[in-house]
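Long-time lurker, first post. I've been practising inverse folding by hand and with some scripts of my own, and I keep getting stuck on stretches where the structure tokens seem ambiguous. Below is the full token string for one chain I'm working on. Before anyone asks, I'm not after the true native sequence, just a reasonable design that respects the backbone. If someone could post their per-position residues I'd love to compare against what I wrote down in my notebook.
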């Protein structure tokens, strides 16, 4: 399905015919541009956005301290078929917070697996169950997908590699839903906007840098890069602008927060492409607001997401 608007001021170039993308304003849900947004495809390490949400929500629910909880890289990391992005090895230890940094900033698959193994073990223990802790964690990721209305998503692992006979999949629209949901969490927004960070592996400090080239530019809060052979280059971006303050007819002030989410799947020039989509998206969104923010067909003009949990 394609979102089509008669008043849309910018269209996808045929140069990006194989690309899926969506641009949405997070607070209103207004879809500003989209192409192939509901096409199911591999999303590589954008999977780790959901991994981070489940881990942070678990930590909040169990009153677990991200900075003191220690994780160990499990033996199953040897089955990933590639080295760790930050040099992790089986048996290495780090805090849950540092594992989130490694997973979200450097897209480290060992760290993502360690998060899933630790949190999944705790979930099974609390429920009095036995089984594969990573799969228990992935089960929570798929429950999350249902909650955020990501109906075209199925996760098979916490890192996004296409290892299973039937790999997981998602869509640009669904990744936007996860992204909106993730950026409502202070620990995640704090992590994803960092250009670099020192993490400790076995107690020894190591500086890692963010793979997202947009981080550090005005208003950019992250979120996540991803690349595999099947998925191609992928990127989910969050950008804030200062709220608009307007005088209402009754004389009171009205404040409208503004946040854009851009999701690109299989986009060879993902960073420059995102910059352009952000520029065009802001222009279209602000003109839509100025015209009264009219929504004629919510099903096609708005991205359905659950409201923030209070």
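-- Answer (accepted) --
I ran through it position by position. Result:
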């Amino acid at each position: 399905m394609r979102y089509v608007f008669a008043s849309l001021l910018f269209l996808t170039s045929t140069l990006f015919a194989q690309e899926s993308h969506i641009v949405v304003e997070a607070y209103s849900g207004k879809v500003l541009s989209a192409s192939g947004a509901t096409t199911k495809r591999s999303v590589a390490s954008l999977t780790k956005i959901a991994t981070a949400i489940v881990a942070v929500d678990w930590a909040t629910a169990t009153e677990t301290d991200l900075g003191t909880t220690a994780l160990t890289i499990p033996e199953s990391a040897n089955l990933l078929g590639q080295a760790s992005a930050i040099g992790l090895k089986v048996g290495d230890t780090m805090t849950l917070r540092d594992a989130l940094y490694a997973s979200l900033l450097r897209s480290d698959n060992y760290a993502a697996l360690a998060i899933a193994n630790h949190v999944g073990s705790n979930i099974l223990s609390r429920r009095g169950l036995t089984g594969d802790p990573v799969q228990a964690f992935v089960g929570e990721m798929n429950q999350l997908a249902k909650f955020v209305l990501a109906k075209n998503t199925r996760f098979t692992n916490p890192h996004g590699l296409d290892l299973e006979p039937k790999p997981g999949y998602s869509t640009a629209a669904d990744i936007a839903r996860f992204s909106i949901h993730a950026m409502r969490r202070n620990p995640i927004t704090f992590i994803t906007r960092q250009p670099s960070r020192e993490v400790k592996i076995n107690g020894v400090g190591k500086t890692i840098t963010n793979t997202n080239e947009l981080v550090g530019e005005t208003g950019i809060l992250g979120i996540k890069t991803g690349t595999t052979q099947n998925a191609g280059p992928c990127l989910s971006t969050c950008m804030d602008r200062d709220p608009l303050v307007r005088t209402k007819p009754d004389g009171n002030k009205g404040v409208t927060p503004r946040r854009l989410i851009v999701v690109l799947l299989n986009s060879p020039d993902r960073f420059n492409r995102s910059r352009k989509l952000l520029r065009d998206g802001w222009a279209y969104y602000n003109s839509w607001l100025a015209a009264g923010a009219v929504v004629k067909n919510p099903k096609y003009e708005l991205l359905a997401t659950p409201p923030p949990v209070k």
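A couple of notes from the structure itself: The chain has one domain: 14-301. The helical segments are 47-61, 96-105, 109-126, 133-147, 172-182, 186-192, 270-290, 298-301. Happy to go over any region you disagree with.
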